[in-house]
Amino acid sequence: MQSENRIFDDFAKMVNGIAGTVAGAGREAEAAMRERAKEWIGRMDFVSREEFEAVKEMAAKARAEAEALKARLDKLEGAAKPAAVRTPTAKPATKPAARKPKAK
Questions:
Q1: How far apart are CA 60 and CA 76, in angstroms?
Q2: Domain range list for the chain
Q3: Confidence tier at 66 by pLDDT (50, 70, 90)
Q4: Mean pLDDT throughout 16-22?
């Protein structure tokens, strides 16, 4: 009876060791795959989320500034247009008539 328990104990230890080895190999394989994926993505020139958000914010600011400048330009053009349409109130200056020299 004692020998059967010893065999089962050895078998349980062996299975436990194999399970630990398989789990460790799985973790190593996962880490290696993650590293390969990072290298592959790194070669494809993807941007990080932080960089994307920063550029997105810059684009939004530029768009808002462009809209503000357009509104300002439209306002200035609107103010300048009626002045160009108006007729001048002063008459244009005329040249004095040329005098003929007196005959002697």
A1: 24
A2: 1-46, 47-80
A3: very high
A4: 90
What are 96's two structure tokens?
């004095």
Sign of CA dihedral 34, 36, 39, 45: negative
Q: What is the pTM of this model?
A: 0.39
Q: Which helix (H) or strand (E) holds 7?
A: helix 2-43
Distance CA 54, CA 48 (A): 10
Give per-residue burial for 47-58: e unless 16+ CB within 10 Å, then b: eeeeeeeeeeee
Residue type, 29: A
**Residue 81: φ, ψ to 5°:** -65, -50
Q: What is the H or E stretch that residue 70 is in?
A: helix 49-85
Structure tokens at 91: 């008459």
Question: What is the pLDDT at residue 58?
Answer: 97
